[in-house]
C-alpha cells in the first residue's frame, strides 16, 4: 500500500510540466553569465593595458632625454623606471616578471648621427576576475626618439616680447648650420619681414613664427613652434670686480673722448694732439667711459666699463686680440656705423670665448654696427639688455659670433660661422634635440 502510493506520487511529479521554464532559464543563464564575465575581463585587461601604455610613454621619453643628455644606459634606464612607477603600479591580479620594486620593464637604447632612441617594453599576465582560466598575456611597447642637439647662433631670452628675434629691412642673414632660438610665446616670436632673407639650420620658437616661406630657407623640414624654452646657459658665471678708473686725460682728444694731448695715456706712452697715423695703445682695467674716436690698439685682458658707455664712433679703428669687455653698473654699448673694429676674445680664463658681457640687471639696449672691414669674434652675452641691434659685415666666410640678449634684431647683411669651437673656447650654445614618440 505504501509502495503503491509512492509510485503514484512519483508518476505525478515526473508528469508535471509546470517548472520547465525555470529549469531551462537557469540552464540558459550559464553561457550568458560566462560571456558577461569574459567581457568584463577583456574590458579590465584593455583598461589595464592603456594604463601601462601611458606609463611606458613617459618612461620612453624620460629615458631617451637622459640618454641624449649624456647619461649612461643604466642611469637612463633608472630614470625611465622612475617615471614608469610614478605613473603605474601593477595590480595584485597582474603577474609580472618581478615585484613593483623589480618591475619587468625593459628599455633598449640606440644611437646614430641623427637621433637617439629608447624602446620601452612591459609584459604582464592579466588574471581573470570571475573564471578559472589561463591569464591574458599582454605586451605593450613605446618608442621615443630624440634628435641630435642643434647648435644655436642666437638666443633671445625674453618670454613674452613680440619679435623677440627679428630680421627686417633688406637684411640678408646666413646662419647655415646654426639654429635660432626664441623663448617668447608671442604670435610673432620669430619675425622675418620686409625684403629680408634668412638662411638657418632651424628655427625654434616658444610661440609662433612669422615669416614668408620665400624669405626663410631652413635645413630642417620646418620651423618648430611651441618648442621648450632654453634657459640662460651662462647665468651662474661670476663677473669681475670694478676697480679705480683708468686716467685717460693724456690719451689725445682725437683718440679718446675726454682725452688731452702730450700726456701719458694709461701708462703706454706720450700721445700727440693730432692723429697723423699714430695708434694709441690701451691697457686692461676699469674705465668709467671708453669713447674711441681714432686708431686704438687694445692690449689683451679685461676692459671693465663702470656705469658709463663703451662707444666707437664712425672714425674709430680698434684692434684687440684676447680682449673681453664687461658692461657693469648699467654701462651702455654703442658701436656706430662706419667704425672699424677687429676684436677677438681670450681663450683662457673664466670668460674664455666671450667678447662682450653685460651683468644681469643691465637692461640698456645695445647697438653693434660697423663696416665691411669690421669683425667681432666670440660670444656677445647681454642677458638682460632690452634689445641688441646687430649689423654684420656681410662677409661671405662668416663670423664666429654668438648673440644672447632679451631681444635681438638683425638689420644688415651678416653671416654666422658654425664651426667655431676653437674661437669660442669650446663654449657651445646648444638647443636640446626635440623628443617625440614614434610608437
Describe the structure.
With 439 residues, the protein is an alpha/beta fold. The protein folds into 2 domains: 2-148, no CATH class; 151-433, no CATH class. It is 18% helix and 35% strand. The chain contains 3 helices and 34 strands. It has helices spanning 2-15, 20-68, 73-87, and strands at residues 94-95, 105-111, 115-126, 136-147, 150-156, 165-167, 172-182, 190-192, 197-205, 209-211, 216-218, 224-225, 263-264, 270-271, 280-282, 285-287, 290-292, 295-298, 301-306, 309-312, 317-321, 323-328, 332-335, 340-344, 354-358, 366-368, 375-376, 378-382, 388-390, 401-405, 408-410, 414-415, 430-431, 435-437. Strands 5, 7, 9, 11, 12, 16, 19, 22, 25, 28, 30, 32 and 33 form a 13-stranded mixed β-sheet that branches. Strands 10-8-6-31-29-26-23-20-17 form a 9-stranded parallel β-sheet, with no helix packed on it. Strands 1, 2, 3, 4 and 34 form a 5-stranded antiparallel β-sheet that branches. Helix 2 (20-68) packs antiparallel against helix 3 (73-87). The radius of gyration is 36 Å and the shape is elongated. The protein starts with a helix and ends with a strand.
Amino acid at each position: 500500500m505504501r509502495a503503491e502510493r509512492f509510485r503514484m506520487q512519483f508518476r505525478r511529479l515526473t508528469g508535471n510540466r509546470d517548472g520547465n521554464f525555470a529549469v531551462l532559464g537557469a540552464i540558459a543563464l550559464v553561457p550568458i553569465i560566462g560571456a558577461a564575465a569574459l567581457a568584463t575581463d577583456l574590458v579590465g585587461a584593455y583598461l589595464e593595458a592603456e594604463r601601462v601604455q601611458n606609463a611606458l610613454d613617459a618612461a620612453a621619453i624620460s629615458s631617451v632625454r637622459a640618454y641624449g643628455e649624456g647619461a649612461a644606459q643604466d642611469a637612463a634606464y633608472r630614470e625611465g623606471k622612475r617615471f614608469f612607477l610614478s605613473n603605474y603600479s601593477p595590480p595584485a591580479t597582474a603577474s609580472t616578471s618581478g615585484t613593483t620594486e623589480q618591475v619587468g620593464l625593459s628599455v633598449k637604447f640606440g644611437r646614430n648621427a641623427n637621433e637617439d632612441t629608447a624602446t620601452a617594453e612591459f609584459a604582464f599576465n592579466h588574471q581573470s576576475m570571475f573564471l578559472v582560466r589561463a591569464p591574458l598575456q599582454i605586451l605593450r611597447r613605446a618608442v621615443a626618439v630624440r634628435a641630435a642637439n642643434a647648435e644655436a647662433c642666437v638666443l633671445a631670452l625674453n618670454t613674452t616680447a613680440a619679435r623677440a628675434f627679428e630680421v627686417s629691412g633688406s637684411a640678408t642673414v646666413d646662419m647655415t648650420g646654426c639654429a635660432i632660438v626664441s623663448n617668447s610665446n608671442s604670435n610673432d616670436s620669430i619675425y622675418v619681414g620686409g625684403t629680408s632673407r634668412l638662411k638657418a639650420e632651424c628655427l625654434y620658437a616658444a610661440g609662433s613664427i612669422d615669416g614668408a616661406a620665400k624669405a626663410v630657407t631652413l635645413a630642417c623640414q620646418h620651423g618648430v613652434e611651441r618648442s621648450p624654452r632654453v634657459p640662460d646657459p651662462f647665468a651662474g658665471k661670476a663677473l669681475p670686480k670694478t676697480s679705480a678708473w683708468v686716467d685717460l686725460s693724456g690719451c689725445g682728444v682725437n683718440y679718446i673722448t675726454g682725452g688731452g694731448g702730450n700726456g701719458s695715456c694709461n701708462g703706454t706712452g706720450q700721445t700727440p694732439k693730432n692723429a697723423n697715423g699714430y695708434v694709441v695703445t690701451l691697457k686692461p682695467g676699469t674705465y668709467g667711459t671708453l669713447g674711441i674716436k681714432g686708431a686704438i690698439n687694445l692690449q689683451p685682458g679685461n676692459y671693465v666699463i663702470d656705469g658709463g658707455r663703451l662707444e666707437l664712433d664712425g672714425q674709430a679703428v680698434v684692434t684687440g686680440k684676447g680682449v673681453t669687455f664687461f658692461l657693469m653698473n648699467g654701462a651702455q654699448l654703442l658701436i656706430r656705423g662706419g667704425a672699424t673694429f677687429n676684436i677677438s676674445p681670450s681663450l683662457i680664463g673664466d670668460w674664455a670665448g666671450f667678447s662682450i658681457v653685460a651683468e644681469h640687471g643691465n637692461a640698456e639696449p645695445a647697438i653693434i654696427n660697423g663696416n665691411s672691414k669690421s669683425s667681432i669674434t666670440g660670444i656677445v652675452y647681454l642677458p638682460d639688455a632690452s634689445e641688441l641691434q646687430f649689423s654684420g659685415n656681410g662677409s661671405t666666410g662668416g663670423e664666429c659670433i654668438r648673440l644672447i640678449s632679451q631681444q635681438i634684431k638683425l638689420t644688415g647683411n651678416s653671416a654666422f660661422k658654425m664651426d667655431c669651437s676653437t674661437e669660442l673656447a669650446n663654449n657651445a650654445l646648444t638647443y636640446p634635440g626635440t623628443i617625440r614618440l614614434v610608437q
